[in-house]
């Protein structure tokens, strides 16, 4: 009786192991994901541009200002040390070859974070400056990297990450997978 139970446990283990390997080999189902229809405008150049976060922040420019009218714009905020960012980047070139109507704007976030200084000397002025800076930081809604926002040719947000939700990242992974055949889980 005991050997029958041990054999049954071994069978369950092997079935589970085969299922995990099959999922890994044959990919994640993309469900009913449909890639956005191609835009009329085709970009000139490679379609990948680099930006630094601090100049945007210092000029109080939102990430949405990087959206290119007439083309799909993917904005990715990344860190050099972010492994997920590097995996995602591995699919960019083949994706951009397939979709000439897409521009990817990569925004480098400083590894040391954002250092802030205050100039206030009057009572309460430093607190007001700190509150204003905090409000500017919170407006970006960046709670980790990668942070992805995707804009349509009309500059409307299609999908975007927010604190606690990585909808933009998931949308981009699926979109790259559909266009290139790369497995979404590898991005």
Protein architecture, described:
The chain has helices at 2-26, 53-58, 83-89, 92-98, 125-140, 167-180; strands at 48-52, 72-78, 102-108, 147-151, 157-160. With 187 residues, the protein is an alpha/beta fold. It has 2 domains: 1-30; 31-111 and 123-186, Glutaredoxin (3-Layer(aba) Sandwich). It has a 5-stranded mixed sheet. Helix 4 (92-98) crosses helix 6 (167-180). The termini are far apart. Mean pLDDT is 85; it is low at 19-23.
Distance between the termini: 47 Å
> What's the structural domain tally?
2
Q: What is the number of helices?
A: 6
Rg (CA only): 22 Å
Structural class: alpha/beta
Query: Numbering strands along the chain, what is their spatial order in the largest sheet?
Result: 1-3-2-4-5
Q: In CATH's first tier, which class of the largest domain applies?
A: Alpha Beta
Low-confidence stretches: 19-23
List the helices and strands in order: HEHEHHEHEEH
Number of strands: 5
Give the overall shape, derived from the CA principal axes.
globular
Strand content: 5-15%
CATH architecture annotation of the largest domain: 3-Layer(aba) Sandwich
Give the proportion of residues in helices: 40-55%
Average the pLDDT over all residues and give the rounded result: 85
Q: Main sheet?
A: 5 strands, mixed
> Might you state the CATH topology name of the largest domain?
Glutaredoxin
CATH 4th-level superfamily of the largest domain = Glutaredoxin
């Amino acid at each position: 009786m005991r050997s029958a139970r041990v054999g049954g446990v071994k069978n369950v283990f092997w079935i589970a192991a085969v299922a995990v390997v099959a999922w890994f080999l044959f990919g994640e189902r993309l469900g009913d994901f449909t890639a956005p229809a191609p835009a009329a405008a085709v970009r000139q150049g490679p379609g990948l541009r680099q930006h630094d976060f601090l100049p945007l922040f210092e000029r109080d420019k939102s990430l949405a200002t990087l959206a290119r009218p007439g083309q799909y714009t993917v904005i990715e905020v990344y860190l050099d040390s972010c492994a997920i960012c590097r995996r995602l980047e591995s699919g960019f070139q083949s994706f951009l070859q397939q979709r000439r109507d897409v521009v990817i704007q990569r925004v480098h976030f400083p590894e040391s974070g954002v250092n802030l200084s205050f100039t206030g000397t009057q009572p309460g002025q430093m607190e007001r400056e700190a509150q204003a800076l905090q409000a500017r930081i919170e407006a970006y809604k960046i709670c980790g990297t990668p942070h992805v926002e995707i804009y349509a040719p009309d500059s409307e947000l299609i999908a975007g990450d927010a604190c606690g939700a990585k909808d933009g990242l998931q949308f981009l992974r699926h979109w790259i997978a559909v266009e290139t055949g790369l497995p979404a889980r590898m991005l």
